[in-house]
Amino acid sequence: MSIWRLVKLNFGRSPAHFGELGIGIEQTSDRVRSDALFSAWVSVYARLFGKNAVEELLQIFPCEKRSQLIPPLRISSTFIYRQENEHTIYYLPRPLKFPINYPNEELEFFKTYKKLNYLPLEVWQRWYQGEGFIGADTEELIAETNGKSNGHLRQVGTFDYKKAVEIDQIPKIAVDRVTRATNLYHTGFVQFRSGENPSGLYFLLQLSPEGEKLADKLKATLHLLGEEGLGGERSSGAGRFQVEWLELPETWQKVVNFSAGNYHTLMSLFWDIPITTEFLNNASYDIQERGGWIAENQLRRKMVRMFSEGSVFIAPPAGKLVDVTPQGFKKHRIYRSGISLSLPIKAKDK
User: What is the pTM of this model?
Assistant: First the structure.
């Protein structure tokens, strides 16, 4: 039986730089994907508990050579939450299939609907695990398209995702070590809301019985990662956070235990091999290229293509670790996590 936790990362006044492949250092994402979080977590785990301990940990995850293994843990990507008085709004990726009862004639509001890349948990649960799309949703999306709505979707934060963060570009000076020449450049930072109604990131953690035995070590590692920082520009103090390791709230328990779904939607990145034609039958998905540098070496990891968050499949995706060790790197193997975490949903078949 799985054990679920909800983990909140509170950045306070610490800015963060979350790089994405291809967007350049002058830009930043507002969140961290599951594979990058896994890599950072495992890297700190190795420093905290030693090389042998991390090798033992990785040996119990499924990969191409050990595809039959059950992973000790699954993690979602991080997503934004924001506090509104006594209420916390958790944003989830919108599944790439329409909710049940979604109208066939939606030209008046389709562009507005497509811009909703993330939905508040309350709306997500109603659309994809409850009664689905209702007439009032149509009317409000039309009103939002034509100006600004004032209905239930707006009241629960559906159109206010960007209020949780501010993204700025900060000028910096690079100094050439040989010539001492200077070069001006800009780096993008995301700043989460702090103070009375703070915002931050959260992720879901699913532990197997074997993974539950590692919970104390995983928690200690995550606290250390928070002190060191997550993402880029850590030498400037960016990416530092405090951890809240929480029992799964009742609303979330209903979400993860939902049993009347006909699809599964990704809350993480997902990689597996082989991917069969049957598995992709009636699926809706996006592909994300993942690359990056090895932290202690100026070598790029091998590029890998993964299914992205919000992708929808009939069967629950499993996933594996993928070896992305570059040619010529002998120190140790480099893995990227394609272990998936998905949630059951109801969605339109067509």
Answer: 0.92
